[in-house]
Amino acid sequence: MILIIVPLLSLMTIILTHEWGHFIVAKFHNVRVDEFAIGMGHKLIAIGNNGLEILWFGRGKKKVEKDGKVTYKKTMIPLTTKVISKPKFCENMETTYSIRLLPLGGFYNLFGMDDKDSDNPRAFSSKKNREKIAIVMAGSFMNIVLAFIIFVSLLVTDISFTTTISDMTPAMKDLGIKNGDVIVGVEGKNIETIDEYLYHLTLALRNTKESDITLSVRRGSQKHTYTVPKKNFENTTGFGFKKDTNKNPFHILKNGIFKVFANFKITFDSFGKLAEGEVSANEMSGIIGIFKIFIDSFKTGLSKGFIYAFKNVIYLTGIISLNIGLMNLLPIPVLDGGHIARYSIESVTKTKLSPRVANALAFIGIFFLGSLTVFFMFNDLKKILLP
C-alpha cells in the first residue's frame, strides 16, 4: 500500500504547488478565484459560500410527472454533493476549497477566464496581458522553487558529492587519470555537477556507434582529455567522488542554484537529442512510468533503510517538479506556455485573438497532448509487461 501512497503524495505535492502558484498570484492581482481543488472528479468535501458540503450517496426523492400529476418517488441518489452545514463565516467566502474523489491533479477556477465578464474589474479577462502572463507563469515558477527548496534541503541534511575524483578502478589508473582530477567534460559536454556527469555518461554508454568515451579533466590549471573504453564502465561509474563537506549557507544556496540550472541543461539537452533522434521517444515516460520510477527508487532505498528511501523519493520529487515546471512552459496551446505565447503576441500586435481561433488552437493542443498521453501510457505498459 505504501508503494502506491508514496508516489501519489509526491505527485500531489508537485501539482498542488503548481496550482497554488496560480492561485496566490491571481489573488495578488485581485482576480476572483471561484474554486481551488485538490484532486479531480466529484467533491468529497468542500467549504465555501454554499457552506460545508460532502459527497452523498443515499436515498432521496425523484420528481415524476404522469398524466399531469406530479409525484415523488423514493430512489437511490447517485454520487452527488450535499450541504450539511452553513457556518456564518462561509457567507463571506468567495473561493470554494474542495478535496475531490480522485487523488490525481488539482485545479483552480478563475472568474472570467473564458473571456466573458471582461467588464468586471475582478475578471481574469479584464486584466492587462502582463498580469495574465504573471498569473499563468506562476505555476511553473513555484515548481522550480519547490525543486530548489528540495535540493537545498538535501544538501543540508545529506551527503553530496563533487566531480573531484577520490578513487577509481585500476583500469582508469592505467589511463593516467589521477586522484584529485576534476571531471569537467564528457563527450565534449561541459560538466559542473555530479548529476550532469551521470546523465552524459549514461547517454554516451547508450551510443552503440562508439566503443570509447571521451573524458576531460582539470588538473591544477591544466586540462587533460582521455579516451576511455566503454568496458571500463561496466557495472560502475568508473570513479569514486570527493564528498562536499562545506555546510556554509551561501555555499549550499549556490549549489542549490547550480543543481537547478544543471537539471535545466539536462532537460533541454534531452529535448534536443529527442529531436535529433539520438534519444528514442520510447525512452520517455508518462504517468505510469513516473509511478514505477518512484516505486523502484523507494524499494531500492529501503534496502539501506527507510530514511534513505525517503530521501530518494524527495530527490525524485524535486527532479520531476522541475521537469513539470519546464514542460508547462512549452508554447503548446492549453499548456501555460501556450497561454503565455498568446498573451505575448496580443501585447505586441495589440489585437485580441478571436474566440474561434482560440478554440481551434485549444482543440489542437488537447488532441496533441491526449495523443502523447495515450502513447506514453502504452509505452509504459509495454516496458512493464514486456521488459
Question: How does this structure look, described?
Answer:
This protein has 387 residues and is of the alpha+beta class. The protein has a domain at 170-237: Pdz3 Domain (Roll), CATH 2.30.42.10. It is built from 9 helices and 10 strands. It has a 4-stranded antiparallel β-sheet, with helices on one face. Strand 6 and strand 7 (189-190) form a beta hairpin. Helix 2 packs across helix 5. The protein is elongated.
Q: So, CATH architecture of the domain at 170-237?
A: Roll
Mean pLDDT: 83
CATH class of the domain at 170-237: Mainly Beta
* Rg over CA atoms: 26 Å
* Tertiary shape: elongated
Give a short account of the largest sheet: 4 strands, antiparallel
The count of helical stretches stands at: 9
Helix content: 40-55%
Summarize the helix and strand pattern as letters: HEEEEHEHEEHEEEHHHHH
Number of E-state strands: 10
CATH topology grouping of the domain at 170-237: Pdz3 Domain
- Proportion of residues in extended strands: 25-35%
Distance between the termini: 24 Å
Strand sequence of the main sheet, in spatial order?
3-2-1-4
CATH superfamily caption of the domain at 170-237? PDZ domain
Write the layout of secondary structure elements.
Elements: H1 2-28, E1 33-48, E2 51-66, E3 69-85, E4 96-110, H2 129-157, E5 160-168, H3 170-174, E6 182-186, E7 189-190, H4 194-206, E8 212-219, E9 222-229, E10 239-244, H5 249-276, H6 287-302, H7 306-328, H8 336-349, H9 355-385
Antiparallel strand pairs: 1-2, 1-4, 2-3, 5-10, 6-7, 6-8, 8-9
Summarize the structure.
This protein is an alpha+beta fold. Helix content is 48%, strand content 26%.
